[in-house]
């Protein structure tokens, strides 16, 4: 089932205390919404093993910077540790994006994800979920093709330069601190 995800992570039970801020930006390199979630207290850290190495993605003092551009079918989440060091970039492939009546950015998650690590390793995740959604009639062939096209575009043109990704993410993080 296609999930609607909200930038303020209102359904996030792992996080016990957080501060959320969102702003609209329009400039030469980006137009859309940027949200920051400062994670103050968690029930327990979230640690994922990626390519044989453990990465802590959520813990006390971590920051998630979420950019939801008007152009493109993706949402980029940059995950920072408590020292504001980037842990990873996570691209959710999206269909519909918008704002709630309360001004909270949201997107419809199209299952397929691209993860980029600071060492330039890149992963394409959840291909089976996307295929299952097509086979079960949850999405159309057009949705399926769009998701793969967007993921390939990200992997070919956006995610290949971690220095550029770092500069972009850090530029917007500084807008909030």
TrEMBL record:
InterPro entries: DUF402 (IPR007295), FomD-like_sf (IPR035930). Residues 69-159 form the DUF402 domain. Pfam families: DUF402. It comes from the Bacteria. PANTHER family: DUF402 DOMAIN-CONTAINING PROTEIN. This is DUF402 domain-containing protein. It comes from Clostridium yunnanense.
């Amino acid at each position: 089932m296609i999930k609607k995800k909200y930038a303020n992570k209102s359904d996030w039970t792992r996080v016990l205390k957080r501060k959320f801020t969102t702003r609209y930006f329009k400039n030469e390199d980006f137009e859309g919404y940027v949200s920051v979630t400062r994670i103050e207290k968690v029930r327990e850290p979230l640690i994922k093993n990626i390519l044989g190495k453990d990465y802590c993605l959520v813990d006390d003092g971590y920051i998630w910077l979420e950019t939801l551009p008007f152009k493109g079918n993706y949402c980029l989440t940059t995950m920072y540790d408590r020292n504001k060091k980037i842990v990873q970039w996570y691209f959710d492939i999206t269909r519909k994006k918008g704002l709630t009546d309360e001004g909270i950015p949201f997107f419809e998650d199209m299952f397929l994800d691209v993860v980029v690590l600071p060492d330039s390793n890149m992963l394409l995740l959840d291909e089976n979920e996307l295929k299952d959604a097509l086979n079960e009639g949850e999405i159309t062939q057009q949705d399926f093709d769009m998701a793969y096209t967007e993921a390939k575009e990200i992997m070919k043109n956006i995610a290949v330069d971690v220095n550029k990704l770092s500069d972009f993410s850090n530029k917007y993080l500084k807008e909030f601190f």
